[in-house]
Structures are given as C-alpha cells and as structure tokens.
Amino acid sequence: MLETERRKVVRYGRLLLERKLTTGTGGNLSVFNREKELMVISPSARDYLDIEPEDTVVMNLKEEVIASSSKPSSEYQLHLLIYQERPDVRAVVHTHSVNATAISCLNEEIPPLHYLIGFAGDKLPRAEYALFGTRELAENAVRSLGSSYNATLLDNHGLLAVGSSLQQAFQTAEMLEYVAELYVKCRSMGEPALLNEAQMKKVKEKFDSYLHSSVRDEKDEKEI
Ligand SMILES: [Zn+2]
Q1: Which has the closest alpha carbon to 196: 137, 112, 133, 120?
Q2: Ligand 1 center–CA 207 separation, angstroms
Q3: Which of 5, 35, 54, 75 is catalytic?
Q4: Residue 75 among the catalytic residues
C-alpha cells in the first residue's frame, strides 16, 4: 500500500540527517495521497537510518492506523490537520534544525532579510507555543500558516515546512534553515537591512513560477 510514498518518507528522512536538519529521532515528515485520503508518516522514536518503508505508518483522516507495525510520529495530529485545512499541501516536513529552532526560542518571526525567505512567503511567521504532540500545537500551526505561508516557526520548538511534494517541503525546510542562520549571524552584528514590500512582491512573483515548475519536475522525480 502506497509503496512509492513510503519509500519517499524513508529517503527524505535519511536526507534530514545527512543535511544536518535534525539529529537522531528528532523531527518528522509525511506525504498525503489526496486521491486515497491517506497519509504516510515517519514512525515515532526511530532513528532515520534504521527505518525501512514497511516501518512508516499509513493513517486516514480519522487518525486510524491503516498499515504498519510501528507507532506513528507523536506529531501525527499536526500533519493531519494541515492536510485537512490546506488543500494545496501534499507533504509536511518538521525539523529541529539549530538556527531556526534558536529563533523559535526567541518567539520571533524572521523578516525578509534575504530573497530565499520567499520559500515561506513574505516572511517566516511564528506559531504560538503549545506542548509537542498536542491538538493545540496543530491548531496554532495551522492558524499561523493561514492560506498561503509554506512554513512557520513553532515557538520554543522548531521549524515546520509544507509543500505540494516532499521534495518541495524538504527544500523549503533546508532553505529556511539557511535564512535562519543568516539571521542569527546578522543579529549578532547588528540589525539586517530588510527587503521592502515592493521588492518582496517581485520575489514572490518569481517564486510562484519557480515552485510551479518544480511541481512538474516532481512528477518524474528520480531517486536521490
Ligand atoms: Zn518537534
């Protein structure tokens, strides 16, 4: 069942470690098959290097496990609520990457200091604190994402990125960790000069066409 999706969750889980976006069992990721209304999510408390496709967990929108011997990630409600509230989203990547998480601990947004913030929108917003693995955290994250943001910082917790494919959600998480690192460095020296509204509007136009073309690429995506 959903073999392609299960293989992707394993592959991108390993990539989270390789690209240093998380350590050990931290973070989680999922893909949603909209036609079948089924989600494939990484299992709870398992090292990404040890996960095989059959260890990933298939769930429906009623939070029922359809296939797997493993427990789903403790953040499964966060993933499921996003798929219900955002019809354009087919993949979610959640990381505890160091720089993004450091800023989340300041309970601040990241302003448009670099055009790569366009992976999130006109800024990287923040979601109010709630305990990990709760419905409240899922609701706060969904409220922060609204109808158009592709990422948010979860207060005192980490980064959440969404996309129309796992490749896109992963790339968004990776790029925003880079922007977060820039922001940390800038703030250690002073205040960064920000892009203005008109400049960000042009960035957004370019991003819209770029993200559109990367969705087409995903259809015949090769193994990484
Ligand atoms: Zn987390």
Answers
A1: 112
A2: 27
A3: 75
A4: yes
Q: What pLDDT, on a 0 to 100 scale, did the predictor assign at position 106? A: 98
**Total-model pTM:** 0.93
Angle at 100 between CA 95 and CA 105, to 5 degrees: 105
pLDDT on residue 221: 54
Strands (DSSP E) found in 13-68: 28-33, 38-41, 57-60, 65-67
| Angle (CA) 140 5 70, round 5° | 75
Q: What one-letter code names the amino acid at 71?
A: K
Find the 215 Cα to ligand 1 centroid distance in Å: 27
Q: Please check whether residue 155 is in contact with residue 107, taking contact to mean a CB–CB distance below 8 angstroms.
A: yes
Quote the longest CA-to-CA distance of the chain. Answer: 52
CA of 159 from ligand 1 middle (Å) equals: 8
Please tell me whether residue 28 adopts helix, strand or coil conformation.
Answer: strand
Q: Of 98, 147, 81, 148, nearest to 119 (Cα)?
A: 148
- Regions of the chain with pLDDT less than 50: 220, 222-224
Residue of 90, 48, 97 lying closest to 73 (CA atoms): 48
Mean pLDDT, the chain, integer: 93
Q: What pLDDT score was predicted for residue 168?
A: 95
The per-residue pLDDT for 215 is 61
- Look at residue 159 and give its three-state secondary structure: strand
